[in-house]
């Protein structure tokens, strides 16, 4: 799961009315400290070494950029977040065509493994790139993304070789290339370009589902490879910068290690639950499609919560008032996420053959989406240790209690639902506790 790193631009817009006439970074630093921002928050939330480094970055943006109208800026953030889910899901339109050519038995196991690798790699690369950019090192961030892409392709190809067929290697490399390169385009706010480049392959994949002819499947796969190649070229061009800045040694070591562990636990929890059914039970395999399509909703609501709760800080006088309103905002955001995911999931299930196990599996993914929403908020506070512990507990319950239950898909998916409910409960307890500490939101 991607960890949201809060953009400095939002902080700039928040401080602009007070600092529009600032003449030096020290004025900005004083304003940041008056808002309760310390060195720890500067590192965890914005990727800067300390408050003064953050102040220099904010000051540079204040003096060189014209303020965007708040309504326009809000609309821009909203649509960019909401389209992320459908963008992530675009390659899925090619799966029926690929399956028809390669065979589901040789396709799915390899793709499950490379999906996990791409998930972890993309999450860590994104966090590192945001941190380096926040430190004023965009060339180093670009170099990191390029190296991550090369590393991912090598690992995906080597892993796919375990499954033997050359076609599996090509598909695994293509899939991981899309995962990493789409992240690069979204990092550079090129959602429209990503949609345009993947549109021919997506349309062709949908065309095969309608027509069902082998030649259409071949055309769809060929267009898919070309589209992903175009996405990769765009990602490489976007990451072309000059000589990298002096490396910031040790700045992100602990943070990246925790991000790596958390991403691995998150990917393992979901893929272990789904991996057993990608071949044998299509109704269970597609149960998580609503969650993928709704990931942008989770990001959008997380941004909305952060903005709203900071507004509450400036309106109330007592911590107890902030806590009460913060809980209401949290509940509102969670219910909105659950409602959106439920609607998307119902729409997906309406196009498939529904079973009891499929409904339970879909409900588990909706609950998991609510947990992801709360996890975004906790990640923005730098609480990766707690996130790792909560996700590890849910994974332990799901994998550890399985042998104690009767065999069969129904018992397994019910256990997965229980583990998702446990994860959501743990994260809500952590988030509820953080709402008592106003300094998290200044």
TrEMBL record:
Record's keyword annotation contains Membrane: yes
Keywords from the named record: Membrane, Transmembrane, Transmembrane helix
Iron among keywords: no
Transmembrane segment boundaries: 85-104, 110-132, 144-163, 194-211, 217-240, 252-272, 329-350, 356-377, 413-435
Name of the featured protein: Integral membrane protein
Source organism of this protein record: Nonomuraea dietziae
Native organism taxonomy: Bacteria, Bacillati, Actinomycetota, Actinomycetes, Streptosporangiales
């Amino acid at each position: 799961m991607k960890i949201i790193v809060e953009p400095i631009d939002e902080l700039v817009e928040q401080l602009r009315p007070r600092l529009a006439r600032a003449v030096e970074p020290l004025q900005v630093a004083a304003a940041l400290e008056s808002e309760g921002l310390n060195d720890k928050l500067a590192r965890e939330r914005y990727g800067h070494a300390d408050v003064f480094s953050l102040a220099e970055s904010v000051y540079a943006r204040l003096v060189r950029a014209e303020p965007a109208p708040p309504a326009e800026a809000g609309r821009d953030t909203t649509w960019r977040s909401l389209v992320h889910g459908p963008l992530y899901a675009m390659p899925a339109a090619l799966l029926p065509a690929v399956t028809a050519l390669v065979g589901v038995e040789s396709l799915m196991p390899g793709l499950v493994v490379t999906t996990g690798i791409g998930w972890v790699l993309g999450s860590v690369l994104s966090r590192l790139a945001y941190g380096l950019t926040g430190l004023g090192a965009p060339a180093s961030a670009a170099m990191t993304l390029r190296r991550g892409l090369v590393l991912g392709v090598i690992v995906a190809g080597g892993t796919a070789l375990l499954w033997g067929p050359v076609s599996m290697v090509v598909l695994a490399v293509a899939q991981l290339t899309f995962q990493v390169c789409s992240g690069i385009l979204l990092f550079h706010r090129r959602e429209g370009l990503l949609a345009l480049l993947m549109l021919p392959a997506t349309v062709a994949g949908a065309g095969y589902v309608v027509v069902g002819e082998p030649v259409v499947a071949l055309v769809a796969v060929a267009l898919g490879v070309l589209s992903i190649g175009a996405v990769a070229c765009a990602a490489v061009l976007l990451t072309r910068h000059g000589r990298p800045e002096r490396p910031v040694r040790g700045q992100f070591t602990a943070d990246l290690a925790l991000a790596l562990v958390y991403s691995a636990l998150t990917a393992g929890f979901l893929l272990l639950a789904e991996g057993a059914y990608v071949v044998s039970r299509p109704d269970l395999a597609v149960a998580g499609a609503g969650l993928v399509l709704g990931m942008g909703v989770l990001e959008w609501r997380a941004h909305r919560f952060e903005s709203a709760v900071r507004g509450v800080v400036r309106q109330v006088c007592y911590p107890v008032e902030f806590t009460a309103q913060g809980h209401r905002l949290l509940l509102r955001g969670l219910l909105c996420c659950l409602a959106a995911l439920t609607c998307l999931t119902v729409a997906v299930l309406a196009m498939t053959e529904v079973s009891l196990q499929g409904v339970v599996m879909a409900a588990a993914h909706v609950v998991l989406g609510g947990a992801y929403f709360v996890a975004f908020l906790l990640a923005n506070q730098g609480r990766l240790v707690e996130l790792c512990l909560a996700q590890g507990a849910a994974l332990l319950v799901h994998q550890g209690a399985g042998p104690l239950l009767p065999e069969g898909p129904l018992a397994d998916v019910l256990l997965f639902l229980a583990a998702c409910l446990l994860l959501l409960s743990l994260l809500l307890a952590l988030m509820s506790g953080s709402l008592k500490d106003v300094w998290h939101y200044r």
